[in-house]
């Protein structure tokens, strides 16, 4: 029985050592993975910065500004159209007959 006991102890120690080795290898692999992730993330950030890519927040801010400018342009176009129509109506009412006369434009004062 002594031989079996020695064999069992040797096998047990072998499995213990193998288990420790595998645990250490898994820990080392996990450390290497974290290091690779860190390096890759740093490289990706460097590349994106070099490409001068806009961040999402900046893009959204510019998009909102463009939408506001578009709406303001539409409002101003309508106002110009309304003012032109009102001016044409005033010019037409001011003439007794025939086509409307041109309106004299005032010359700007110096300094303005």
Describe the structure in your own words.
The protein has two domains: 53 residues; 40 residues. The chain contains two helices and no strands. 79% of the residues lie in helices and 0% in strands. The chain is rod-shaped. The longest helix is centred in the first third of the chain and has 49 residues. The model has no long low-confidence stretch (mean pLDDT 83). It is an all-alpha fold and 112 residues long.
Give the topology.
Elements: H1 2-50, H2 56-94
Key features?
79% helix, 2 domains, 112 residues, mainly alpha, 2 helices
Quick take:
With 112 residues, this protein is mainly α.
Q: How many structural units, i.e. domains? A: 2
Strand content range: under 5%
Helical stretch tally: 2
Taking the alpha carbons of the first and last residues, their distance comes to: 116 Å
Characterize the overall form.
rod-shaped
- Number of DSSP-assigned strands: 0
Structure class: mainly alpha
Mean pLDDT: 83
The portion of residues assigned to helices is over 70%
**How do the helices and strands follow one another from N- to C-terminus?**
HH
Q: Give the C-alpha Rg.
A: 42 Å
Major sheet = none
Low-pLDDT stretches? none
